[in-house]
């Protein structure tokens, strides 16, 4: 759903420390950044040439099982508590240990998981029939009571679930049969069931939740779920180890490895060197500027899979100069987004004018796809038109504050490119760099955004429906960071949420996308694939953004 650095950010970590203002004088400076080494990058940009790439949906099946393998993670998880697992580092681990009522597959389809089936008897109710013969990692059987306890945590203010927005229309969660749970909504909500393939639908043992209390999901409490791997240990600051669960219920996803270890490597250079040497077997979200080095190492393959993420510049203050639509449009028209794409991610991806990728329009009608991606405003770079808009708005000399962090090459490139674009049309930008932790606070703490006009996010979706993106931009939503409000947009989105038929819903969602494209509550930059490195010892990876919720590690075995 976000994010952050995702949020629902592609993000890597989040935080900050002010280092002062940085201004650059032209886009030519940005083009040179591909060969530079900003904090968090590998310094291996080479000549900045584009990288040849293609989508890989599935790698070769393993020839056999493997004792163990290691994956490098750019950050240590904040928590393995599903209520707080809201970003890459958390969910890439949790997806292999805990399971949801439904399963979000690598092709973004939803299929039964811990719920062997579901029903929708009235517009306000969803009924889940719980699978029999499933056990938690401590050997106890899965029951409907466990499902009720797990789902109910999202409604508990004391828990403060990051996934509360999924449950905001829920009025009751009850066991209505020996193996049945019924969720009652205050009104029709198509998005609730679509979210049951992610962290919002995870089921944990009710007894474990009660026993662990505040320690649940942390390095000492751990988790006790139903997935193909069980939680074995968490060495704070070092690693998390998972062990194959031999009594796993789904034979098709029985783990091919006896153990998997996630090694925390916050330094991008160290992470790339570990992959190049073969000391770790793989890693998600590899630094794109390092792809040529990794390919040349002969230690594995850099792969690219379908993604739901879009890189955006968030407008976080609509009380200032950016409250004028003409200024927002001018800034977007002034940006050399093709140059950003090249300098930030070596040309891997494409410029976009909307906030969603086509991967989350899989059940849309043809008319909806046309409306969503063709019948929109295209903001091709045009400095002359941008300057005219600034003059009409009387915004010459207006000052903006852009917050960034030393997270990766893309963060450095985008911050300076935005400043260059603003300066080229008579605006002034103060770039303030903060720590990754402080940066993350921008997505969760309104006070952290005070005085901030702009910041970057790579925002991914956690369900297979584009409507998720637009539901978070309604008036008053937590992730509507600038407080944007458009009554027509709200009405369209609410109608779409109440529409069960996917084709009809997609046409309403397309209208919402058109409104957002015209009003620009955020400034869309580009989309790109998900990157992963698969080392020479292993195979079976399914490169897809669904790795955040799908038990991807279970499919990896010996090459």
Automatic annotation (TrEMBL):
The lineage of its organism: Bacteria, Bacillati, Actinomycetota, Actinomycetes, Micrococcales. One of its GO terms (molecular function) is peptide transmembrane transporter activity. Keywords: Signal. Residues 1-34 form the signal peptide. This is Glutathione-binding protein GsiB. The gene is gsiB_4. One of its GO terms (cellular component) is periplasmic space. It comes from Microbacterium oxydans. GO terms for biological process: peptide transport. Residues 110-475 form the Solute-binding protein family domain. It holds the Pfam family SBP_bac_5.
